[in-house]
Specification:
22% helix; single chain; UDP N-Acetylglucosamine Acyltransferase, domain 1; seven-stranded mixed sheet; 184 residues; alpha/beta; five-stranded parallel sheet
Length: 184
């Protein structure tokens, strides 16, 4: 298996692999162009997003600056909005449903690292996919940790650290993020 195949399978892989480093460089070059674009260059931004992401629906809007590892592992539905300074570490798939809104500084991390220091020193890491269902709102500065699923119509409060799945139709916030109440 290649390091990329291991990465996408959720196995330990070497993040320093030349093929992966090259893919990250391509994404960073695209992001530089995207992040340096002006507001009146909306069509240019949309084209870069379509080339960068694995899949995009209608009406994807991303306020620069935006950052990701590869982009190709991000799959966004219709009417998805990322406010300023969002980060997606997409070493595993990130699936985003329709009508999802992310406030400024939302961080979505699929990447995780071994607890063993020698393995980290050797450049090994892994990833777990993240799924965000339809009609989710994620508040400013929230962090989604590897492997979490956010249910449809959930609202994640600002500053939350989501370490476990969040069911559909709830308001959840805190560190760690906890369900506070059901939404009507």
């Amino acid at each position: 298996m290649t390091e990329k195949e291991k990465m996408l399978a959720g196995q330990l892989y070497n993040a320093l692999d030349p093929q992966l480093a090259h893919a990250r460089r391509i994404a960073r070059n695209m992001l530089k162009e995207f992040n340096d674009s002006r507001d009146e260059e909306g069509e240019k931004r949309a084209q870069i997003s379509k080339e960068l992401f694995g899949e995009t629906g209608e009406n994807l809007w991303i306020e620069p600056p935006f950052f990701c590892d590869y982009g190709a592992n991000i799959f966004a539905g219709d009417n998805v909005y990322f406010n300023f300074n969002c980060v997606i570490l997409d070493v595993a798939e990130v699936r985003i449903g329709n009508n999802v809104f992310c406030a400024p500084n939302v961080q979505i991390y699929t990447a995780t690292h071994p607890l063993d220091f020698q393995m980290r020193r050797d450049g090994l890491e892994s990833g777990e996919p993240i799924e965000i269902s339809d009609d989710v709102w994620i508040g400013g500065g929230a962090i989604l940790c590897p492997g979490v699923k956010i249910g449809a119509r959930a609202v994640i409060g600002a500053g939350s650290v989501v370490t476990k799945d969040v069911p559909e139709g709830v308001l959840a916030f805190g560190n760690p993020c906890r369900v506070v109440r059901a939404l009507e």
